[in-house]
Amino acid sequence: MSSENTISMTIPSRIEELTHIEELSVRLAKQLSLDQDKQNNLSIAITEAVGNAITHGNGRDPEKTVDILVKITPTTLTVSVSDQGSGFDPSSISDPLAPENMLKESGRGIFILRQLMDDVTFKFEKGTTLSFMMRLDK
Amino acid sequence: MNIDVKEYGNVTVLGVKGNLMGGPETVSIHDKVKELVQNDVLKIVIDLSKVKWMNSSGLGTMMGCLTSLKNADGELKLCGVAEKVKSLFMITKLITLFSTFDTVEDAVADFQK
């Protein structure tokens, strides 16, 4: 029997979908018996990643979709979020803590993801896949 | 989003409820603040005691509200910020830009100083 469980879903690029994504994170957290702190971190991370894919990756074009793949092992939860956008250079993300960026309304999503999750990676193929991992054994 | 508007003398308190995760409800808070600013309502408290979660979109909305008020020589205070939400304000250092209070009464009273 495999020790890895996967869940996959595809959603249209509508910001309203974030409500369902938030619900997914709560279901996942219950399934994994996460404590409240980790549940909050997971909900924030999933909505950040999917919100980024909908808004920045797919430009909120409902004809474009976002794929979400959740992999659960006994020690890790990994969520991969793929959009159909043209990609970006992660090194171009400005530091949200820099004084010139502090007053900006956007540009904190990836920073927050990196603070809350144990690993965050990007892959660029047909669009961008952002993956983040949360350790379940600590 | 259902925004509960109450007036305490010359201070307007916006009570928001739910999670500020980037949906249309997140934007509606800034729209409400801009509407109030246009009507010369310049002392505003946003009561976040019924907001459990927030992500970067919610933080961006708070920044937008702060900027709209500052540009009009107004002032924004926050109250009832949950620990989890406060931790986001801290890791992004936005906590240094906002005045935060435990209760609506404390925030309103601070306007009277």
Commentary on this structure:
The complex is a heterodimer of chains A (138) and B (113). The mean pLDDT of chain A is 92. Chain A has helices at residues 18-31, 36-57, 109-116, and strands at residues 5-12, 65-72, 76-82, 119-125, 127-135. With 138 residues, chain A is α+β, with helices and mostly antiparallel strands. Chain A has a single domain (5-135), classed as Histidine kinase-like ATPase, C-terminal domain (Heat Shock Protein 90, 2-Layer Sandwich). Chain A has a 5-stranded antiparallel beta sheet, covered by helices on one side. Chain A starts with a strand and ends with a strand. Chain B is of the alpha/beta class. Chain B has one domain (2-108): 2-Layer Sandwich (Transcription Regulator spoIIAA), CATH 3.30.750. Chain B has helices spanning 24-38, 56-71, 83-91, 104-111, and strands at 4-8, 11-20, 43-54, 75-79, 99-101. Chain B has a 5-stranded mixed beta sheet. The model of chain B has no long low-confidence stretch (mean pLDDT 93). The A-B interface holds A 15-16, 18-19, 22, 37, 40, 43-44, 47-48, 51, 55, 96-97, 102-109, 111-112, 115 and B 19, 21-24, 52-57, 59-61, 63-64, 67, 84, 88, 91-94, 97.
Q: What's the arrangement of secondary structure elements?
A:
The complex is a heterodimer of chains A (138) and B (113).
Chain A: E1 5-12, H1 18-31, H2 36-57, E2 65-72, E3 76-82, H3 109-116, E4 119-125, E5 127-135
Antiparallel strand pairs in A: 1-2, 2-3, 3-5, 4-5
Chain B: E1 4-8, E2 11-20, H1 24-38, E3 43-54, H2 56-71, E4 75-79, H3 83-91, E5 99-101, H4 104-111
Parallel strand pairs in B: 2-3, 3-4, 4-5
Antiparallel strand pairs in B: 1-2
Helix pairs in contact in B: 1-2
Structure characteristics:
heterodimer; A: 138 residues; alpha+beta; 3 helices; 5 strands; B: 113 residues; alpha/beta; Transcription Regulator spoIIAA; five-stranded mixed beta sheet
Q: How far is the N terminus from the C terminus of chain A?
A: 25 Å
Give the CA-CA distance, first to last residue of chain B.
32 Å
Quaternary structure: heterodimer
Shape of chain B: globular
* Strand order in the largest sheet of chain A: 1-2-3-5-4
The whole-number mean of residue pLDDT values of chain B reads 93
**Class inferred from helices and paired strands of chain A:** alpha+beta
Radius of gyration of chain B: 13 Å
Q: Biggest interface and its residues per chain?
A: A-B, 26 and 24 residues
The CATH H-level superfamily of chain A is Histidine kinase-like ATPase, C-terminal domain
Strand content of chain A: 25-35%
Number of domains of chain B: 1
User: How many helices of chain A in DSSP terms?
Assistant: 3
Number of strands of chain A: 5
Instruction: Give the CA-based shape of chain A.
Output: globular
CATH fold group of chain A:
Heat Shock Protein 90
Structural class by secondary-structure content of chain B: alpha/beta
